[in-house]
């Protein structure tokens, strides 16, 4: 029998969301209670709000909610650090056996948490929320998102699914792994595909934002994309080695051709052959050495990230589950 009750955690980053919190609590509260019933009697939940440096009444609304419901925890950050950092803070604070990051604006429907929990009980360590379509997004957003995933999946070592956001269920085991990773500029989506393990999917329709407005701007998305690519692959560095080799090779051939031409047909423009050969040769040499340096910088980047070499899923087929550890 289980000695400690099972705990489910919601992690909710909030940044200037005073009007969104009450509607969220109504729907998410009902959903998480249903999820607790699904797990079994005695199951508890907590809702960890991470106040990402809000300047409006968010904190006051949260404190009032906590007065009514002690399952609510509030982690206040010292300023606005961005959603990813807020999520990292929430993941560290959450104590649940399963942790579910969710947006406060109800774009992630809380009702599917019950299905996520079912998959989790069936043995999945990560249950991804998959958007079944992006009709709520503008055509430009859809196009840029599509382009990003195409590019990313072509270069990165682990493929990421294209319609998965931050809304997912994460088993305690994975949360502990994520909490110990030392890397600073995290690309969470990439991390979740990197950890592997048995994953399941629940699809949902992403709704329109209920209150307030989105805090993402294209400039942020662009930086986000850059972080994602450079955090997960050294392909942009490595490419220069090949470009350099190709250019140097072509330059060498062209140089031979010019030397031959000069030797047999004479020199029509004095100085041109030697100049051209020198420029091409050194251009190629430069690119090759940049490429070599890129190789080393790429290795440094991988070392600095300090990820474990591997993660063990099971021993003798026995998956170690946090729930089992409590027994
Ligand atoms: N958020 C945050 N810090 C930020 C920006 C956003 O904690 O700097 C929170 C926000 O309150 C919301 C979630 O992250 O709960 C998603 O934000 P938003 O709806 O603006 O993003 P979108 O849905 O457009 O991707
Ligand atoms: Mg939103």
Automatic annotation (TrEMBL):
- Stretches assigned to the Glycosyltransferase 2-like domain: 9-175
Keyword Ribonucleoprotein assigned: no
Bilayer topology reads: Multi-pass membrane protein
Keyword Transferase appears in the UniProt entry? yes
Out of the domains of life, which is the source?
Bacteria
Major location category of this protein: membrane
Cleaved signal peptide residues: none
* Compartmental location: Membrane
The molecular function terms in GO held by this entry are: glycosyltransferase activity
Q: Which Pfam families match?
A: Glycos_transf_2 (PF00535)
**Cited CDD domains:** DPM1_like_bac
Q: Name one GO cellular component term.
A: plasma membrane
- Spell out the protein name for this chain: Glycosyltransferase involved in cell wall bisynthesis
Source organism phylogeny: Bacteria, Pseudomonadati, Pseudomonadota, Alphaproteobacteria, Hyphomicrobiales
